[in-house]
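Pinned message: reference record for 1,2-phenylacetyl-CoA epoxidase subunit B
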Amino acid sequence: MTESTSAEPFDTPRSSATQDEWPLYEVFVRGKRGLNHVHVGSLHAADDDMAVRHARDVYTRRNEGVSIWVVRSDAITASSPDEKDPMFAPSGDKVYRHPTFYSIPDNVPHM
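Predicted structure (tokens):
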């Protein structure tokens, strides 16, 4: 009886689903100097933990980041490019949104 070998890493969970059937994840990385997470790419993974591990291996090989977010693509809701003007146009008729109607204390920096 011969022992079967696999090319998969030992920590990859075995699943009846093939890699093409795994859900798609979007990957965001926060750089060492930056404050914001930036979208760096996408990958398929069997579960959330695998997505984080694969994102680390693929997108931070050279110590590019200090934090990784992975989000299933089917959980993202985005605005449509057709809604650009009504969604992001300034609200000139909503003057209460402008800071001129509020007194700002002197000890509040950078306002």
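Pinned by admin. Summary line: The first helix runs from residue 48 to 59.
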